[in-house]
Amino acid sequence: MKTLQIYLSFDGRCEAAFRFYVERVGATMGPMFPYANSPMAASAPSGWETKIMHGSITIGGVTVSGADVLPGQVDETPRGFRIVLESDDPAETERLFHALAENARIEMPIQETFWSVRFGMLTDQFGIPWMVSCARAPEPTS
Protein backbone atom coordinates (compact mmCIF):
# COMPACT_ATOMS: atom_id res chain seq x y z
CA MET A 1 0.00 0.00 0.00
CA LYS A 2 1.36 3.40 -0.91
CA THR A 3 -0.99 5.81 0.85
CA LEU A 4 -4.09 5.95 2.97
CA GLN A 5 -6.73 8.59 2.28
CA ILE A 6 -10.08 9.40 3.78
CA TYR A 7 -12.97 10.39 1.50
CA LEU A 8 -15.93 12.27 2.96
CA SER A 9 -19.33 13.06 1.47
CA PHE A 10 -21.03 16.36 2.26
CA ASP A 11 -24.52 17.76 1.73
CA GLY A 12 -23.38 20.94 -0.04
CA ARG A 13 -21.00 22.18 2.68
CA CYS A 14 -17.71 20.54 1.63
CA GLU A 15 -15.87 23.82 1.07
CA ALA A 16 -17.15 25.28 4.36
CA ALA A 17 -16.10 22.12 6.22
CA PHE A 18 -12.62 22.07 4.70
CA ARG A 19 -12.10 25.78 5.42
CA PHE A 20 -13.25 25.13 9.01
CA TYR A 21 -10.67 22.31 9.36
CA VAL A 22 -7.93 24.54 7.93
CA GLU A 23 -8.77 27.27 10.46
CA ARG A 24 -9.46 25.04 13.47
CA VAL A 25 -7.09 22.07 13.27
CA GLY A 26 -4.32 23.41 11.05
CA ALA A 27 -5.16 21.41 7.94
CA THR A 28 -3.56 22.49 4.68
CA MET A 29 -5.96 23.28 1.85
CA GLY A 30 -5.52 21.27 -1.33
CA PRO A 31 -7.25 21.72 -4.66
CA MET A 32 -10.99 22.40 -4.77
CA PHE A 33 -12.87 21.64 -7.98
CA PRO A 34 -16.43 22.98 -8.25
CA TYR A 35 -19.05 21.31 -10.43
CA ALA A 36 -19.00 24.27 -12.84
CA ASN A 37 -16.70 23.72 -15.82
CA SER A 38 -16.21 20.05 -14.89
CA PRO A 39 -17.36 16.89 -16.68
CA MET A 40 -20.05 16.66 -13.95
CA ALA A 41 -21.50 20.13 -14.65
CA ALA A 42 -24.42 18.79 -16.69
CA SER A 43 -25.54 16.41 -13.92
CA ALA A 44 -25.37 19.00 -11.14
CA PRO A 45 -28.66 20.66 -10.21
CA SER A 46 -29.19 24.37 -10.67
CA GLY A 47 -27.44 26.29 -7.89
CA TRP A 48 -24.71 23.65 -7.47
CA GLU A 49 -22.21 25.28 -9.83
CA THR A 50 -20.01 26.38 -6.92
CA LYS A 51 -20.47 23.20 -4.85
CA ILE A 52 -17.41 20.96 -4.67
CA MET A 53 -17.17 18.01 -7.07
CA HIS A 54 -13.82 17.04 -5.50
CA GLY A 55 -11.54 18.72 -2.99
CA SER A 56 -8.90 17.85 -0.46
CA ILE A 57 -7.05 18.94 2.65
CA THR A 58 -4.09 17.44 4.46
CA ILE A 59 -4.07 16.85 8.22
CA GLY A 60 -0.94 15.47 9.84
CA GLY A 61 0.34 14.08 6.55
CA VAL A 62 -2.94 12.32 5.70
CA THR A 63 -5.03 13.47 2.74
CA VAL A 64 -8.71 13.93 3.47
CA SER A 65 -10.70 14.30 0.27
CA GLY A 66 -14.35 15.00 -0.15
CA ALA A 67 -17.19 16.17 -2.31
CA ASP A 68 -20.66 17.60 -2.19
CA VAL A 69 -22.77 14.58 -3.09
CA LEU A 70 -25.67 15.34 -5.37
CA PRO A 71 -29.03 15.62 -3.58
CA GLY A 72 -30.71 12.27 -3.04
CA GLN A 73 -27.52 10.21 -3.40
CA VAL A 74 -26.57 10.15 0.29
CA ASP A 75 -29.14 10.69 2.98
CA GLU A 76 -27.53 9.50 6.19
CA THR A 77 -24.89 10.67 8.59
CA PRO A 78 -21.57 8.85 8.36
CA ARG A 79 -21.27 6.03 10.88
CA GLY A 80 -18.98 3.16 11.67
CA PHE A 81 -15.81 5.27 11.60
CA ARG A 82 -14.20 8.31 13.19
CA ILE A 83 -11.34 10.55 12.17
CA VAL A 84 -8.79 10.45 15.00
CA LEU A 85 -6.57 13.41 15.88
CA GLU A 86 -3.73 12.33 18.15
CA SER A 87 -1.49 14.83 19.91
CA ASP A 88 1.34 14.32 22.36
CA ASP A 89 0.46 17.56 24.18
CA PRO A 90 -2.58 17.60 26.52
CA ALA A 91 -3.12 21.36 26.01
CA GLU A 92 -3.08 20.95 22.22
CA THR A 93 -5.51 18.05 22.53
CA GLU A 94 -7.88 20.27 24.54
CA ARG A 95 -7.53 23.03 21.92
CA LEU A 96 -8.28 20.64 19.03
CA PHE A 97 -11.34 19.23 20.77
CA HIS A 98 -12.79 22.66 21.57
CA ALA A 99 -11.96 23.93 18.07
CA LEU A 100 -14.04 21.14 16.53
CA ALA A 101 -16.79 21.41 19.16
CA GLU A 102 -18.46 24.55 17.76
CA ASN A 103 -22.06 23.53 16.98
CA ALA A 104 -21.02 19.87 17.39
CA ARG A 105 -22.74 16.96 19.10
CA ILE A 106 -20.47 15.97 21.99
CA GLU A 107 -20.54 12.21 22.58
CA MET A 108 -17.78 12.19 25.21
CA PRO A 109 -16.46 15.44 26.69
CA ILE A 110 -12.68 15.83 26.70
CA GLN A 111 -11.37 14.15 29.84
CA GLU A 112 -8.76 11.85 31.30
CA THR A 113 -9.35 8.13 30.82
CA PHE A 114 -7.47 5.04 31.92
CA TRP A 115 -5.87 4.83 28.43
CA SER A 116 -5.33 8.51 27.67
CA VAL A 117 -4.31 11.75 29.35
CA ARG A 118 -7.02 13.55 27.32
CA PHE A 119 -9.72 11.96 25.17
CA GLY A 120 -13.00 13.15 23.70
CA MET A 121 -15.49 12.26 20.95
CA LEU A 122 -17.80 14.45 18.93
CA THR A 123 -19.63 14.74 15.65
CA ASP A 124 -18.90 18.14 14.18
CA GLN A 125 -21.36 20.60 12.69
CA PHE A 126 -20.82 19.02 9.25
CA GLY A 127 -21.78 15.53 10.47
CA ILE A 128 -18.22 14.17 10.59
CA PRO A 129 -17.36 11.99 13.63
CA TRP A 130 -14.05 12.66 15.42
CA MET A 131 -11.97 11.35 18.32
CA VAL A 132 -9.32 13.61 19.84
CA SER A 133 -6.70 11.96 21.99
CA CYS A 134 -3.46 12.48 23.91
CA ALA A 135 -2.06 9.06 24.75
CA ARG A 136 -0.84 8.24 28.21
CA ALA A 137 2.88 7.66 28.47
CA PRO A 138 3.63 4.01 29.17
CA GLU A 139 4.27 3.13 32.80
CA PRO A 140 7.93 2.42 33.50
CA THR A 141 8.70 -1.24 34.07
CA SER A 142 10.99 -2.27 36.85
List the helices and strands and how they pair.
Blueprint: E1 5-10, H1 14-25, E2 28-34, E3 52-59, E4 62-68, E5 83-86, H2 90-100, E6 105-111, E7 116-123, E8 129-135
Parallel strand pairs: 1-4, 5-8
Antiparallel strand pairs: 2-3, 3-4, 6-7, 7-8
Structure explained in plain terms:
The chain is α/β, with parallel strands linked by helices and 142 residues long. It folds into 2 domains: 64 residues, 2,3-Dihydroxybiphenyl 1,2-Dioxygenase, domain 1; 53 residues, 2,3-Dihydroxybiphenyl 1,2-Dioxygenase, domain 1. It is built from 2 helices and 8 strands. A 4-stranded mixed sheet has the order 1-4-3-2, covered by helices on one side. A 4-stranded mixed sheet has the order 5-8-7-6, covered by helices on one side. The longest helix is centred in the first third of the chain and has 12 residues. The model has no long low-confidence stretch (mean pLDDT 91).
